[in-house]
């Protein structure tokens, strides 16, 4: 594993911590390494340091910020394989998914660099009323201030990058808090950034439990909080942080609709690819499948016939698609939800530390496997009478991040775009499709705000209006 200084990157240097904790490989429980454990006191110190450099960070020339972002992308690319292997070990996620994560991370930093030159305002015609005659008006975008970014365990490097890179592009100091289970890749990333940055304190990292998060998010000096995680935690952060701006990506129970004119082989393939990648630990993985009755039997037959194609095992193996969840408690929870669903189960069972891919047929409303985000290798299939019923079922969820529709009909595709209450509609591809340059976020309990460098930079800046009488 890579080396970086002991302690946590707080201020211009690294501050030692009293406690450290072991980070374990979810697949076999072996120790990957140790990580420093932060405290609320360290979190407050990080805020002090960020506030102290905020004006200087905001004054950095555009060329300096753009160069830094591009240099970080290049540094990540040089160490691509090392990051991939580290991510496998600390997340337990299959190697193929960790390779995708690193590739997307590099694109995110490159895209953030491009957004620096697009950070500008516009003139405003003030003379629409007589009182504006002779006035000149324009607005510009200014950094929102110190940003706190809190990332989830499932894509720790990528999620942290979606917090850090746009903050740098916007001219904001940023403090990132990784998930307690997966701090190592993010620590290394922050170390790389600080080695390249003109002001090391512009990017800091504090680990720790919920008390550390609370110390960061409730500090009134913070300009914005960007959080990726569960709805319950996100709602609490938004309440406690008010009136600080919060950007929340809170997950979902993504639906895939199979219309009567769908390519059934492609739709079945989408469920296999989209339901089990990252061992199902993705907020836009396929969880609910709604199949129109006239094709339900043919679709289900295709899906179940191929379920054994999903390779289960050691995540270090290139062929593996499903491996251990992040910890035993998560495995126990998902297994309990399967049992409580009362649905007919195909596949499944625990093999060592791994929960095998599971399909639940005709899952009713009112059970957690259908209503909530299961975050495991489980797909629920329900037969519906027509597309109308399917769309209604999609919208009945309290979540709304991504949904997809398989159909050959342009009319159905545009109906989905108009009617589905989600942040993104994907036609004839998995709901888990995400380009890191597109606006990404949800509605309802799936959160508020949008990620993607262009959109995150807008979220992390505020307009300042200028009115001049020459």
Characterize this entry briefly.
The protein is α/β, with parallel strands linked by helices and 470 residues long. It is built from 15 helices and 22 strands. The strands form six sheets. The chain has a seven-stranded mixed beta sheet with strand order 14-17-18-13-12-19-20, sandwiched between helices. Strands 9-8-7-10-11-21 form a six-stranded mixed beta sheet, sandwiched between helices. A three-stranded antiparallel beta sheet has the order 5-6-22.
Textual characterization of the structure:
- This protein has 470 residues and is α/β, with parallel strands linked by helices.
- It folds into two domains: 268 residues, Aldehyde Dehydrogenase, Chain A, domain 1 (3-Layer(aba) Sandwich); 181 residues, Aldehyde Dehydrogenase, Chain A, domain 2.
- The protein has 15 helices and 22 strands.
- The strands form six sheets. A seven-stranded mixed β-sheet has the order 14-17-18-13-12-19-20, with helices on both faces. It has a six-stranded mixed β-sheet with strand order 9-8-7-10-11-21, sandwiched between helices.
- Helix 9 packs across helix 10.
- The model has no long low-confidence stretch (mean pLDDT 97).
